[in-house]
Design goal:
The chain is mostly helical. The protein contains 9 helices and 7 strands. Helix 2 packs parallel to helix 6. It is globular and about 65 Å long.
């Protein structure tokens, strides 16, 4: 699915998907899907870091670099060729660190040794089980950007920078949003007679 046709997951959808992945489920076709801490961690990390699934699946513990009082990614995005050096919230770093400790992942090893295709297949299965439409891994990247957009006081430029889009227009299409300034102006211009 393309970036513009994929739905943005809301928090409840995200939470239901993660819980279902953690607990396992039995699909309508009778197939048993065992609990998957790995898939739950992938969804959680993408929803908090906002990086594309291909970049996320290439992450290694050594790609987290301490810089002053915060952690950051030391990666180059595959799609754009841009470095991603944003701060990683401490809670996100701790989540990844704990996951790596629990799973004995070495510093140079991939954290999630799985293909994007396999992750998409699993997300499709859980999405269908839960009855959600148009949810894919990209929905969780969009969720992360939406959260940044709202937390920044609806600063579209902050969302653009987070996504590393070339233009605000791309970000507006991506979030399916007009600027907050335009939304306010439209609201103020209403004259019901």
């Amino acid at each position: 699915m393309g970036a513009y046709t994929t739905a943005t997951a809301d928090f409840d959808t995200l939470q239901n998907i993660v819980r279902t992945l953690k607990s396992g489920y039995k699909s309508a076709d009778g197939k048993t899907h065992r609990p998957s801490a790995k898939l739950a961690a992938i969804v959680t990390l993408e929803a908090n870091a906002g990086i594309r699934i291909g970049d996320l699946l290439r992450l290694r513990p050594c790609d987290f670099v301490r810089e002053g009082n915060f952690w950051r990614f030391n990666i180059t995005e595959q799609k754009t060729g841009k470095g991603r050096a944003f701060p990683v919230p401490d809670a996100v770093y701790r989540f990844v660190f704990d996951y790596c400790q629990e799973n004995q992942i070495l510093p140079d090893a991939r954290i999630f040794p799985i293909t994007p295709r396999e992750v998409q297949k699993q997300i499709k299965a859980v999405r269908e089980y839960l009855g959600y439409d148009n949810i894919s891994t990209h929905s969780f990247r969009k969720f992360a950007g939406q959260e940044v957009y709202e937390a920044s006081g609806y600063d579209i430029e902050a969302a653009r920078e987070f996504y590393q889009h070339a233009s605000v227009q791309t970000t507006q299409i991506y979030l399916r949003r007009t600027s907050r300034k335009l939304e306010s102006a439209i609201e103020k211009s209403v004259h019901i007679i």
